[in-house]
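Allow me, if you will, to draw on your knowledge of protein folds for a short while. I have a record of one protein: its chain in single-letter code and its fold written as discrete structure tokens. I should value your view on which stretches of the chain appear to form regular backbone elements. Thank you for your consideration; the sequence and its tokens are set out here:
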Amino acid sequence: MTTHSGAVGRKSSQYELIASDLLEKIRSGSYRPGQALPPQNELSLSYGVSLMTLRRALLILSDQGLIVQQQGKGTFVAPPQSAYRLSALRSLTDDLREQGQQVITQVLGVGRRKTPAALPDLEAGPDGRALQVKRLRLINGKPAIHQVSWVAEPYGSQIENVDLQSVALYAALADIGQGVNTATETIRIAAATAAVAKLLGLAAGTSVFRSERVTYGVSGDVLVWDEAFIHSRFMEIRTERAAAGVSVRWTPSAAHSPARAH
């Protein structure tokens, strides 16, 4: 029987410590993507805990998308691509295209820049720089979104030469094995700066949606930080509520949707 160096004592937070130990083993490569973990009864014995405690630890990793459990087969480390679930974690652009809207991306600039002090959790290179990507999204031919993305190192350097006008940022990251796992997004009303207003065809100071989105990889580290300014008279946020839950998506406002053929 394999003995785990991270075995923990019996405490109220045993399952959290076990989850942390298993996470470290996944990050270090002791357990590789696609590899099966030892059987649950073996893991519980090596950690000196009950099966219930072990399963609580595995649930934490499962919720983070780091492992997958297959009925009758066992528990496996999730491959990076399996965490890239575009249907569950979609960009604003994907939402709109699914609704039949024409989305054109114009890349305004790509390059390694000094990371702002406001992004302490974004891993920069030894020179304090990370990849910055500036884009303008046109919806049905009208400028609607100005987006600035920062990509953590070393991944930004690996995709710096990718044509991000035709390849989605998440897809480019997935191609180098950095799948997207979770994201948090905050949306507020903000006044458009002169530069943003000019790009969106607005008067300076006009109210726009400001979206700040932090995307995490399968390791739990920050992968991408996004700031987007969205034309608030052109776009709206729509929720659909049902007994099973709530879905939220962006959609063009009725006043700016393309006319339908009669």
Summary: Confidence is low (pLDDT under 50) at residues 1-12, 81-88. The beta strands are 67-70, 74-77, 103-114, 129-139, 142-151, 180-191, 207-217, 222-230, 235-242, 245-252.
